[in-house]
C-alpha cells in the first residue's frame, strides 16, 4: 500500500527538499557514530496516515544541536509541527543544514501515543507502534538471540518474555536487555511506543529502540 504523506516540495539548487507535517513522538539521544568521531540522532514523526517515519540528523564532532532541543520541546508539548527542508533518500528522511521545526495546528492526533487496552489491540489488530498501561504479571528467563548485522557480523543480545495485563486481558511482551531494569514484577507502567504485530494469528508486542 502506497504511503500517503502530507508534504509539500521546495526546490533547492541541487535537489528537491520536502516538508513533513505531524507530531514528534520520540527524540533519540545524540550518539557518537560507530565509524568516525562525528555524532547523530534520530526522531520519530507520526504523520497523517498514522504511520511513523524516522528522520535522522547527522552532526559534526560537537555533540550539540539547537534542533534537538526544539524537537524535544515539541514532543513534550504535544503540538503538531512542520519539519521543513528534509531530504528523502530511498524511503529514508535526513535533515539538512536548513531543516527547522515550525509549530502547526493539525486536524488529526497521533494514535501511537494514545493508550490502548489489550482488548482493543486484539479487536483492531493494530499494526505499528502503540502505547499501553499494564501491570507486569510474569517475567520469563533471559534468552540469547542472535542478530545478523551483516553477512560477516553476528551480535548476540538477551531478551525476556513478560506477561502484561490490564482489566481487559493479557498479552506477551518481548523486552531486550536495555529494558530489563525498567520493569519489576507486580508493578504497573505506561509503556510508550511498543511494536504491535500479528504473527501466526496472534498479537505480538515487543519493545523497540523508541520504547520507553
SSE topology sketch:
Layout: E1 7-11, E2 16-27, E3 31-32, E4 39-46, E5 52-58, H1 66-77, E6 81-89, E7 92-103, E8 115-116, H2 118-124, E9 128-139, E10 143-148, E11 154-166, E12 169-176, E13 188-199, E14 202-206
Parallel strand pairs: 5-7, 8-9, 12-14
Antiparallel strand pairs: 1-2, 2-4, 2-6, 3-4, 4-5, 6-7, 9-11, 9-13, 10-11, 11-12, 13-14
Q: Care to describe what's here?
A:
The protein has 212 residues and is mainly beta. The protein folds into two domains: 7-103, Beta Barrel (OB fold (Dihydrolipoamide Acetyltransferase, E2P)), CATH 2.40.50; 114-206, Beta Barrel (OB fold (Dihydrolipoamide Acetyltransferase, E2P)). Helix content is 9%, strand content 53%. It contains two helices and 14 strands, in the order βββββαβββαββββββ. It has helices at 66-77, 118-124, and strands spanning 7-11, 16-27, 31-32, 39-46, 52-58, 81-89, 92-103, 115-116, 128-139, 143-148, 154-166, 169-176, 188-199, 202-206. The chain has a five-stranded mixed beta barrel with strand order 2-4-5-7-6. Strand 1 (7-11) and strand 2 (16-27) form a beta hairpin. It is globular and about 50 Å long. The two termini are 29 Å apart. The model is unreliable at 7-14 (pLDDT under 50).
Structure annotation, total helices = 2
Strand content: over 45%
| CATH topology label of the largest domain | OB fold (Dihydrolipoamide Acetyltransferase, E2P)
- The CATH architecture of the largest domain can be given as Beta Barrel
Give the number of DSSP strands: 14
Please write the string of helix (H) and strand (E) elements. Answer: EEEEEHEEEHEEEEEE
Output the CATH homologous superfamily of the largest domain. Answer: Nucleic acid-binding proteins
- Please give the order of strands in the largest beta sheet: 2-4-5-7-6
Distance between the termini: 29 Å
Instruction: Write down the CATH class of the largest domain.
Output: Mainly Beta
- Give the tally of structural domains: 2
In round numbers, the mean pLDDT is: 88
Quickly give the structural class.
mainly beta
Give the overall shape, derived from the CA principal axes. globular
Q: The biggest beta sheet, please?
A: 5 strands, mixed, barrel
Instruction: Report helical residue fraction.
Output: under 10%
List the uncertain runs.
7-14
Radius of gyration: 19 Å
